[in-house]
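We treat protein structure as text, and this decision shapes the records that our systems exchange. The remainder of this section carries one protein's record, kept here as part of the documentation:
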Amino acid sequence: MATWRIGSTVLRKVVEAEFPLPVTGALRTADSGLLDAYPWLAPHFAGPDGVFTMSFHSVLVDTGTRRILVDTCIGNDRTTIPQLLPLHTGWLDTLRELGYPPESVDTVVCTHLHFDHVGWNTRLVDGAWVPTFPNARYLVPRAEWEFWRTAPASAGSTELSDTLVPLIDADLVDFVEPGHEVAFGVRLEGAPGHTPGQVAVVVESEGERAVVTGDLVHHPVQFAAPEIASAADEDPALATETRKAFVERYADTGTLVIGTHFPAPTAGWLTRKSEDGPETGALRFVVDRG
C-alpha cells in the first residue's frame, strides 16, 4: 500500500484487486507487441506477450483536517456486473488497518460512474445496500449523473441502482462541476472522453502537486501514444484530446501523476524524452516518441 507526501498532505493507495490483462483487451489496439516498443515501461508496466497488471485501488487523501477518498473500486457482493463474479475482498478492512475507519471519511469523490470506481460507495447489510461511509458527502460530476441515469441498461459499464441511488435517497450526494474545490488544496479538473463528466483530482500543498488521473489513462503507454484509446472510452476522440492536454499541462512540471489503474509503483512524473533518454534513478513516464 503505497504512501506519497505532497507537502503536508498524505496520499495512500488502498488496493482492492489486481488482474492480468492483455494490452489488446484493455486498449483499442490489435498490436500485442505495443508495449515492447517502449522499453521504459519495463519492468513494471510490460509483461510477456503484451500482458500487464491492472490495479483496482482507491486513493485516500489526508490533508490533516480532511479525509477524502478518491473512487471506491468494485465492491463486494455485486451481481449486476456481467464481466465479474461477485468479489469478497478485505478492502474495507485494509482501509481500517491504515487508520481510516469508514465513519472517519468525510468526502468520497467519484471521478466517474463506471462500476469499478463506485462499488464501495455502498455495502450489502441484511439484504439492503447501505452507505459505506455514512458521514461522508459523495461528490459526483453532474454530467456523469445526467449521462448514466438515462444510459441503456445494456451499457454494462455501470449500475447505479445499488451504488448511487441509495446515496441519493439518503441525501448524501452533491452533484458538482469541474473546478469544484473539494477542500483547501484539493480540486476537481475536467477529464472528459472516457466518460462525459469524468474528472481528475488535483492535490496541492506547500508548493508541491499531485494528480490522481481517474481513467483518462489505463496504462502509461497512453502518455506516449495518446491516440490509443482505452477499450471503455465513450468518446475516443475526446479522450485523446484530454490525454494530450494533460501531457501538455503536467509534463516537466514535477507533478506526481498517480494512475488509478497502474500497479506498483503506480506514480511517476511525466517527462519529455531527451537525447540521452529518460532520467534514471526514479520512475518516469516518457511522453513523446523521441
Observations:
- The mean pLDDT is 92.
- The longest helix spans residues 236-250.
- Residues 89 and 213 are 24 Å apart (CA to CA).
- The two ends are 34 Å apart (CA to CA).
